[in-house]
Structure prediction request, 543 residues.
Amino acid sequence: MAASPAPTAAVPPSDAVDGPADLAIGSFSQNAPWIVEPDAMPWREAVDEIRWLTRHDLPELIRPRRLPQGGRAFTVVRRLGTAVALWAWKGRGRDRSVSRADLSRRLRIAAEHLGPTYIKLGQIISSGEGLFPEELVEEFKKCRDQVPAEPFSEVRATVESELGRSLEDVFASFDRRPLAAASIAQVHAATLHTGERVVVKVQRTTVAELVHKDLGVMAWLAPFLVGRLPFAALANPPALVELFAETITEELDFRLEAQNMLDVARSFVELGQRGYIIPRPHPTLVTRRVLVMERLDGFNFDDVSSMKDAGVDTHEVVRTGMIGFMEGALIEGVFHGDLHGGNLFVMPDGKVALLDFGITGRMDEVKRRAFLRLMLGAITNDVRVQLAALRDLGALPMDTDLEAVIVDLGLEGPAIDPTQLTPEEMIHEIQRIVKLLLGYGARMPKELMLYVKNMVFLDGAIARLAPDLDLFAEITNITMYFAQTHGERLFADVGIDPATFEIDLEGVKNSIGVDPSTERLTYRELQERRELIRSRFEKRGVI
Prediction:
């Protein structure tokens, strides 16, 4: 199918840059509590050094040891072991869904008792709708903002220690009850003496020390789990620990997060993308453990009825989300790495406010171009381009025989419709593919993991905001938007002749197991297919 002009509605038009002066350098709100001037922000001076030190110290943190240091390993094994043992004793024989819910609840409580590192793991699981059992995802969503809050006395002590002044000297008001409490920090509403409404993010006491200990325990435990965790087989447990460590250690210094906010805001301006709003970090009130930022207000991402009552076009919200996220990754090489319902909301004008930039995907030029080739290979149904791109991203060793991978995985054969397989056949096929990939040394690079996790969230967002969206038409619209808006640069980056570019959705259709002749598929229909597969597995006792 040859490319045709994309509809103008594929993305909302960019706003004219009028209003606060810093809109020229960042996708911020029109009502500026202060003006962002990066060179006048003293906390930025140490950012590059902090980022380098964080990466430099990582190998030592996760170096496998014969024995774990201290008693933390005993505590972890005792907590998680007790949760599983109580479930096996009391809940294992119940109805399958009730049993999974009981185990999920016990694991979530154990994670909360174990603290920040395991709560963060729970938050990652909570973003895995479609990847993990529904009960586990729903239970661990409570780890986003229902984590027990720290006493206000601890919050006060941290803020005053970091800012070097009493709480009353800095803030005219400071709510004792947090707006949300999560793994690494909790956030409080406050007002500065100059009248600006702000949000104050305060790191939990001793969180850095706990994270470092837990990473050591995970690194010690991971080799014993090789081959024993089917859901972790592709990356293998030691690689998963490394991947997890890369993400969580970046969250331990809020100066990095504040810089991430500025970088993502800048990338949207350079892209001409005004559909996102980033809160402004305060010019001076940013330290390792305290981050003061502009307060924004809007609709909860799940509050579809309120959005529609306010006249918000939820289809446009979905398009903005997809295009803005993909542009950041493919064009600028920087993107928000932890999208979920607690990290964004929709403003009354339909723009999406992004929050919590502790985890941000960053790609150098080599990886960005490889990522771009991966996406173009998918939309043009070029398996070889996709595999070469995965290799260049680090998902496969550089000496991998790609032709052998294509043959072994049957990537050029007819598509398999999972709804036509028995549960046993499906499990066998999954095990076959995983075993082959392990044999080739496959792993999940951090940037790819963050991208896939965000795509899973956006997948769920379509289910809530635009269930009747025609997926094939939307993929075509978005592809043509990229071709028309960024085509010259994109094609030059990957060395493709624009005259030969054609959209081929057969690969997309193969990936979800539908007949190549299918011309239209709504998200509602896709969900029905997924539910059919899940129910058939459940009836046979596979899940």
